[in-house]
Structure formats: structure tokens, C-alpha cells
Design goal:
Layout: H1 10-71, H2 73-110, H3 121-130, E1 145-153, E2 156-163, H4 166-178, E3 182-187, E4 191-195, E5 202-213
Antiparallel strand pairs: 1-2, 2-5, 3-5, 4-5
């Protein structure tokens, strides 16, 4: 009788068993790697979400601050206008207090021997080159002119006085024109004035000037 062994031998069974185990290990390793990869991917997305959420929170805070400022814009604008109006009023008061004083000091310089009007030195040199007759006469004796009246209204000053002759009036007016404190100097019609008696009698010129002051 011939016997046929249809069952695999022990070596074959062992080889098949080891092959199955290797396949199972590979599948398990792949699953583990996939789980690890998914974990790191999830963690990365969590970190990105945290960063984005922080930026959103920061932007939301800035928007709220801007909305708060916009809400108070009308009141802030009103307060700013009131502050500016108050400052303008203070500036005008200071100007009204200091301005006339500066003008009177300038008149004193104009009518002081050895001095003259306050003006830019470069402008003075340019005038000397262009027209020497346009500058003031440094040797003029200002004692030949004296003022009898000074009246100011809305920064327009009327000056009245006496002078030895018309040349003195012209020199005085010229100095005012050159000064940075005065502008639009206008000479009004003058007249003769006789002062004194006997040998001391003087023929003087009565004059009036209208001039705008700058301060």
C-alpha cells in the first residue's frame, strides 16, 4: 500500500507561521507610524490654532480700542476745539500786552541818536546797493522831531508831532517804513507852527502820520 502525506511538513508550517508573523508586525508597525504621524499632525494644527487664536484675540482687542476712540471722537473733537480757542485767547491777550510795548520801544530806537529802525541786515545791504537814498540817514539828529500825540485803534496808529522842517518829517517817515514793526506809512497834510517869541521864535512844521503796526 502506498501512503501519501498531504499535510505540510513541520519546516513548511514553521516558515508559513514566521511569514504570517512578519506580515502582522509590518501591518502593526504601519498602523503605529500612522497613529504617530496623525498625533504630530494634530499637535501641529493645535499649535497653529493657538497662534491664530492669539492673533484674533489681539486684533479683537485693537478693534475694541478703536471703536472706543471712535465713540468718543465727537467729544474729543469738541474738547480739542475748546482748548485751541482758549489758547488763542491767551495768545491774543499776551500779544495785546506785549505788542504796544514793542512798538513804543521801536519808536524810541527810531528817535534815538546813533540808532535806527529794526530791520534785516541783509535787506539793509541790498538797499544800499540798489538805492542808497532808500536807507535812513545815520547822521540825522532825531531831536529835530518830537511827538505830541500817539493814538492806536485796530493796529492803526496816528502819530502827530512837530519838526524843524519837511526834511526831518521825511527822514522820520523813512525810518518807520524801513522798520519791521511798521507798514503802510502815510503822511497827512501838515502845516506851519510858530513857537516862541522874539529872537527865539521858531518856524516849525506840524505833521501827522498814519501807520499800521505789526505785532
Amino acid at each position: 500500500m502506498i501512503r501519501v502525506n498531504l499535510l505540510p511538513n513541520s519546516a513548511e508550517r514553521r516558515s508559513a507561521s514566521e511569514g504570517g508573523q512578519r506580515w502582522l508586525l509590518l501591518v502593526m508597525a504601519a498602523v503605529v507610524l500612522e497613529i504617530v504621524g496623525l498625533f504630530f499632525f494634530h499637535q501641529t494644527k493645535e499649535d497653529e490654532f493657538t497662534v491664530v487664536a492669539g492673533k484674533v484675540e489681539q486684533l479683537t482687542s485693537q478693534v475694541n480700542d478703536i471703536n472706543e476712540l471712535v465713540k468718543n471722537h465727537a467729544q474729543l473733537k469738541k474738547d480739542l476745539e475748546e482748548m485751541r480757542a482758549r489758547q488763542d485767547a491767551i495768545n491774543k491777550l499776551n500779544l495785546a500786552r506785549k505788542g504796544p510795548t514793542s512798538v513804543l520801544l521801536e519808536l524810541s530806537r527810531v528817535l534815538t541818536k546813533g540808532k535806527g529802525p529794526t530791520m534785516d541786515p541783509e535787506r539793509m545791504e541790498q538797499l544800499k546797493q540798489d538805492n542808497p537814498l532808500a536807507v535812513f540817514n545815520a547822521s540825522w539828529d532825531p531831536r529835530r522831531v518830537w511827538l505830541t500825540n500817539y493814538a492806536e485803534e485796530s493796529r492803526v496808529v496816528t502819530l502827530e508831532g512837530l519838526a524843524r522842517d519837511g526834511g526831518d518829517v521825511y527822514e522820520f517817515a523813512q525810518r518807520l517804513k524801513l522798520s519791521r514793526y511798521f507798514e503802510d506809512v502815510k503822511l497827512k497834510e501838515g502845516s506851519q507852527d510858530k513857537s516862541g517869541e522874539g529872537p527865539t521864535k521858531l518856524d516849525l512844521v506840524k505833521f501827522a502820520l498814519e501807520v499800521k503796526v505789526k505785532y
